[in-house]
Specification:
alpha+beta, 3 domains, 7 strands, N-terminal domain of TfIIb, two-stranded antiparallel sheet, flat
Length: 135
């Protein structure tokens, strides 16, 4: 039996709580709050306590997918990113920047959410960005 804990940051919100993932035989099986962390000082919310549950979900996407002839197909990252870039350019040129919107995620860090809003505003030219965890 191979058991270890891995120090990481909870992915659920921008607070940045420190957690230990409990790993048993190469599989994440639980979470322990990291004591002494300035963000959470050994405490976790209900999302933090259950953060490990989505890691091994059979429904979790692990590769980029594109719909081809009505069916989802696994593609390379280059093909997926090229497709997204081309579609964004086409929509922007035909309907304008404000016809595009972005939805950020509570499972991203503050830094990743900042980069998404910067991309939306500076690259695409839209202020249409929202976040699923806002109040």
């Amino acid at each position: 039996m191979d058991y270890k804990t891995v120090l990481t940051t909870c992915p659920y919100c921008g607070c940045g709580c420190s957690i230990y993932l409990e790993v048993l035989n190469g599989r994440v099986v639980g979470v322990i709050p990291a004591g002494g962390s300035q963000q959470n000082d050994g405490k976790l919310c209900i999302k933090g306590w259950n953060v490990h549950e989505f890691i091994h979900s059979a429904n979790r996407l692990t590769h980029p997918m594109l719909r081809k002839k009505g069916a989802l197909c696994q593609v390379s990252w280059d093909e997926a990113l090229d497709f997204v870039a081309a579609r964004l350019q086409k929509i922007k040129s035909s309907d304008g920047s404000d016809s595009i919107g972005f939805m950020a995620s509570a499972k991203m860090t503050n830094e990743e959410n900042y980069l998404l809003q910067k991309f939306a505003r500076a690259c695409v030219g839209t202020n249409n960005i929202d976040h699923c965890a806002r109040l």
